[in-house]
Design a protein that fits this description.
The protein is α+β, with helices and mostly antiparallel strands. It is built from 8 helices and 21 strands. The chain folds into 2 domains: 225 residues, 3-Layer(aba) Sandwich (Rossmann fold); 143 residues, no CATH class. The chain binds adenosine-5'-diphosphate.
């Protein structure tokens, strides 16, 4: 059983807290991803697990043993990095067997492991080749093979697909998933690519400024984001937010003219500042009859229309807003909360043009409310029954 546990792990450098009180309890055979914006502490967290970095606080356990002070070689882990560091002067087979030879394995055991890894990764025909005779994807498979032959308790992977082109990345993603199902080894995977994390992981750990924001299955993070950061980070294009104030259970905002009775789902005291979150797929044209429980129509102006083939993304603003258009289809900026626009995904056949005035509705069952000050989620649907929420 390879249970991996991070207990209040902290890593401070002189001027920055790279990892801040991280608690992760990872089950045997689980595939988890560490995800968050650049500089949030993903790699440092992974390095504390590997032993390449010593935490300044907290403990790390692998299979029930406290390894906080153990050397990397004594942790029974194998690592795969973004930069595929194959030995250029060695054949694929020599690269695969290098680690085993260092550990003085018998030839028979080496042969068995290499043939098994080569079979799993479908690189049997390449064992005699040199690294420069391989494609990027093949090289990455050999790098993963080098980790597999060590038969570790834990795999640690730091953006292993980041240097591959987009198509190959999607292909390797599927291969890694298959591999994980076959090997069933506890895996911690670092990526900044949320699509990668969502598709491969049993659970994702979303990190911001060194702090864990949510650790849950991908769909739970998507459907029930714990706070504003997770809500804005998971999903692309991301959730949009409207700032409002609640009085007598009625949420009103000053930008879009939204008036929304929240009282049947959530009790909110007067004057509380609230962020309403809604995903593009939960915003509809007002004449759409498929929405079960729609809000009152909201009159808006179409700012920009982006055809994506399977749908149209319609950026909306208040009629007299001086907002300038901001797209987030560019995934490099995943952290900005978009608060001055609503975004609607509609059927590509919809006849919508920039500058047009339209009425839209929100699906009440998909409206999320957050406390604006703390960022904490209050409720994930305005259809559910009122429960008391933390004040
Ligand atoms: P990520 O992997 O999420 O991009 P990192 O874990 O690499 O983030 O870095 C987290 C923070 O710690 C960043 O602010 C980074 O600048 C800082 N950091 C990382 N390594 C060092 C180091 N050796 N010395 C000082 N600061 C570091």
């Amino acid at each position: 059983m390879t249970h991996l546990k991070l207990d209040n792990v902290t890593k401070e450098y002189s001027d920055v807290v790279a990892v801040d009180g991280m608690n992760l309890d990872i089950e045997d055979g689980e595939f988890i991803s560490l995800i968050g914006p650049s500089g949030c502490g993903k790699s440092t967290t992974l390095e504390t697990i590997s032993g390449l970095t010593k935490p300044t606080g907290g403990h790390i356990e692998i299979a029930g043993n406290d390894v906080t002070d153990a050397a990397p070689k004594d942790r029974d882990i194998a690592m795969v990095f973004q930069n595929i560091a194959l030995f250029p002067h060695m054949t694929v087979e020599e690269n695969l067997t290098f680690g085993l030879r260092l550990k003085n394995y018998e030839q028979e055991a080496i042969d068995d492991r290499v043939s098994q890894a080569a079979d799993i990764l479908q690189i049997e025909g390449m064992l005699d080749r040199m690294p420069d005779e391989l494609s990027g994807g093949q090289r990455q498979r050999v790098a993963i093979g080098r980790a597999i032959v060590m038969d570790p308790e834990v795999f640690l992977m730091d953006e292993p697909l980041a240097n591959l082109d987009a198509k190959l990345r999607v292909h390797m993603r599927t291969e890694l998933q298959r591999l994980q199902q076959e090997l069933d080894v506890t895996t911690v995977y670092v990526t900044h690519d949320q699509a990668e994390a969502m598709t491969m992981s049993d659970r994702i750990a979303i990190i911001n400024h060194g702090e864990l924001q949510q650790f849950a299955p991908p769909l739970e993070c998507y459907n029930e984001p714990a706070n504003l950061f997770v809500a804005g980070f998971v999903g692309s294009p991301s959730m949009r937010f409207v700032q409002g104030e609640v009085n007598d259970g009625i949420l009103t905002d000053s930008k879009f003219g939204i008036t929304l009775d929240t009282s049947s789902s959530v009790k909110i005291e007067d004057n509380r500042q609230i962020s309403l979150g809604i995903r593009p797929e939960d915003v509809y044209l007002a004449n759409n009859e498929t929405v079960g429980n729609a809000t009152e129509p909201i009159a808006l102006e179409v700012d920009v229309v982006q055809p994506l083939g399977d749908k149209l993304m319609v950026y909306l603003r208040a009629p007299d807003s001086d907002l300038t258009f901001e797209s987030d289809l560019d995934e490099t900026d995943q952290t900005t909360s978009k608060t001055d626009q609503l975004l609607m995904a509609v059927d590509p056949s919809a006849d919508i043009e920039a500058g047009q005035q339209i009425d839209i509705v929100l699906d009440r069952s998909q409206i999320h409310l957050f406390d604006s000050a703390s960022g904490d989620a209050l409720v994930h649907s305005l259809e559910q029954k009122a429960e008391s929420v933390p004040s």
